[in-house]
Amino acid sequence: MADQGADDGYLLDNQQAEAGVRFGALAELFDPVTFRHVDQLGITEGMRCWEIGAGGPTVPMGLAARVGPGGAVVATDIDTSWTDSARGTEAGGVIEVLRHDVAADPPPPGGFDLVHARLVLVHVTDRAEALRRMVRALRPGGALLIEDADPGLQPLLCPDESGPAQRLANRLRSGFRELMAARGADLAYGRTLPRLLREAGLDDVRADAYFPITSPACTVLEAATVRQIRSRLVAAGLATDQEIDQHLANVATGRLDLATAPMISAWGRRV
User: How many structural domains is the chain composed of?
Assistant: First the structure.
């Protein structure tokens, strides 16, 4: 998702150079989970998919490979600068990239066999309206797959808080959560997804959760994220420049066991 303003909305601006690094790390961590669900939902040749808040190109390209030459993928975001590389034809599937606000703009026309959003709705102010538009875009029998973080379920960057480096990491992660909450993020949103999908009228609703405890991609993601929000942490009095420098140095050693918030995947079908 793209930045929604300097003082509110999405905290991590797609225009910053670190955004591409973050997208790469997120793809390494979560693409296998996303495509496990996509494949279980039976997304195959000839289908139409809407990828919301696409960010980087990997999910649209993976969907295009599955739907083939008779299918299509529409990839949308408020800021498409990192998605544009997926535009065109990938493995026979056509990818259309559109600038689009899921909570304000009407869904792309045509109806979809799959509507998917990953790590998007937790940052959207009018989440309820965005979800209504996603459901409305489904064809009968089409599947909605929403994957969102729930930092409240597992708030620590270092679950094994064994020393000063881990304590500093967890304090900075707490500061990050404060910044997110101040901009309207719902830090307990992920756990509500099964109920929200049922209330939206979807059938056969199911969900699971995933988060890594330690991974090289977690190290890359943390360093890029902290660099993106550094000035905001300092301005809010949540950390000093010296503390951030120390944390980045600790992260660079590769010896911290860094985790993510659980990503909850929930899915259901339109009757």
Answer: 1
